[in-house]
Amino acid sequence: MVSVASQSSEARERDGEDRARMRGPARGLAAIRIVTGLWFLKSIWTKITWTLAGGILPLPAVSERWIGFLPERLTEYAQSGPPAWYHAFLVGTAIPNGALFAKLTAVGEILVGLSLTLGALTVLGSLGGLWLILNYLIGSWGLGLNQQGLHVMLITCFLVFIVARAGRRWGLDGWLVGNGGGGNGLLSRLG
User: Fold this and answer.
1) How does DSSP assign 100-114, residue by residue?
2) What gap in Å lies between CA 49 and CA 58, rounded to an integer?
3) Cα angle, residue 184 at apex, residues 178 and 189 outer, rounded to 5°
4) Predicted structure pTM score
5) Cα separation, 95 vs 102, whole angstroms
6) Cα(167)–Cα(30) distance, rounded to whole angstroms?
7) 114-157: per-residue pLDDT in tens?
């Protein structure tokens, strides 16, 4: 007859083996999350510039190059044959307000990049990235499979990051959960 203590010991051993088997996939997912975050952070160099507030304090600002380019890109999207409802959005809202949308996309991409790279509020960052990339996918619908393939891959990554809570390995989300911030709180759900 097997004692309760030995059953408990066997259960702990199996649990430890299960955790060891999951380390590799969790590390791989963390690496993909970090690389995706770094890809989004490239916006810092391509869409952001620095300005001096009061001639003294350096602050980030959306570059004039990006503000000038985005309406051209949105016009290209509108002419490429997106769904009619999205064409109406591009022509009636996004293109006339190109400067605002340039600022929103630049800031959005940087926030998504920081979230994924640091593994901080990864679910929230992935939802933001999903929103951006879904819009890019629909907007570029008529430009061909090269654009769409990248967007579909990124959408898949974001969905996996959300479901797997990808920030909990090599990320601040894991530190938060592991240091008493877990449980059923809002931060735990967003990370």
Assistant:
1) HHHHHHHHHHHHHHH
2) 10
3) 80
4) 0.81
5) 10
6) 7
7) 999 999 999 999 999 999 999 999 998 888 777 788 899 999 99
